[in-house]
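BUG: 3D viewer hangs when loading the predicted structure for this chain

Environment: internal workstation, default settings.
Expected: structure renders.
Actual: progress bar stalls at 90%.

Input used:
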Amino acid sequence: MPEIYWILGTLLAVASVASLIGYVLQRRQPGSAALQNLNARIRSWWVMILVGGGALLAGPTAVILLFAFLSFLALREFMTQAPGRRADHSALFACFFIALPVQYVLIGINWYGLFSIWIPVYAFLALPVLAAVFTDTERFLDRTAAAHWGLMVCVYCISHIPALLTLRIPGYAGRTPLLIVFVVLIAQVSDIMQYVWGKLLGRHPVAPALSPSKTVEGLVGGVLSATLLGTLLWRITPFTPWLAAGISFLIAILGFLGGLVMSAIKRDRGIKDWSHLIEGHGGMLDRLDSLCFSAPVFFHLTRYFYSET
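Structure tokens produced before the viewer hung:
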């Protein structure tokens, strides 16, 4: 697929220009904390582009393994902040070493019927049982709900990204990796541009109690920027230009809502970032939050309206 090479080449070119600008600005203002953070973010984007691009070029198995690993890291960050007791160890073991790998194996063997219900039915029923057998009832509902929510967001929702590879779309054979590029790119560009427009024009916070940096101006600018990009990229999708625009708009809005919900959880736990895993960005879940809501909706819309299965 030459489109992937073009897109990766463009992203690397943009990262190169950003690195050059960041280097020049840092030389002019060597003590600027804002520029240090900017350059840290740029370095992290280099790693993310190279790792993600490498997985796409390596094939479906590499993509599935990559997202399984990302889900593992995100789930670890989430569970670290969740209420827990010794009685939850068996349930946590089941989350990390049974529910998570089985979910991605089901994608690898293209078993959609079980993939779609494995976590929201079977794992959800099993987890409270595993916690209950140790007869520790202190904050039982809170602990069970946290395990359910973490597994749902970090594993089930994120797994819909590599699941796009299983779709069989007439006239689109062999091009499903481009759908992954599309949804990830639109969600991440929307996130980035919301930050940029918010810094440039932001005056009115959307939800100051949850995320003071998110503004109405940033939201509008980011969503419109992502929608424009999605419209320009319609040729790499099975959609028409108008549908590509509409779906891009939906991805951006859902990405914002996902980020807002995850911000609410962070405020509840009294933290700013999920971890310090990614330089300048926070944790893995800080980067994936815009895909938690958008990825499953994008997958099911595409599957329902375009896929043969």
